[in-house]
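QA checklist item 7 of 12: single-chain prediction sanity check.
[x] sequence parsed
[x] length recorded as 156
[x] structure emitted
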Amino acid sequence: MKNTIITIVAIAILAIGFVLLYQNRSTVRETPATSETIRQTSNSQQWETKTEEEASVTVVVTPLDLSPQSAEWKFDIGLNTHSVELDQDMTAITVLTDNQGKEYKPVRWDGAPPGGHHREGVLTFISDKPAPRSVTLKIQNVGVPERNFTWPVQYK
């Protein structure tokens, strides 16, 4: 009788643990991937995630910080494909232009090295003062000749 009670209690504890673990895993799966959500900067400004699917390559770009006060503008970039080799140097194929036509070259790429079919990282540019009204991130030769993603920097 004593062994039966211990067995029932042990099974009940395992069942409760399984249910709690399963609920936590379901919650994680239902949350969108970070690169597909709107990121929030320290000044509570939200920047829209933009996605372009063309020529078998999906490019997802989210500004991490474009505020006029920032010393650096940062973009989270995700590249995904099943048919094209992603072997580009992100600092060589990317340029940022502002609404006045001024170009900014990236100062660094913190992310996956060239190669493979899935890459993600953060591309950083030195910001300009005074801040432009908008910026366009141009990514060249990733499945298509050029991809353009535009965001406002200053709001009227």
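[x] summary fact logged: The first strand starts at residue 39 and ends at 40.
[ ] second reviewer sign-off
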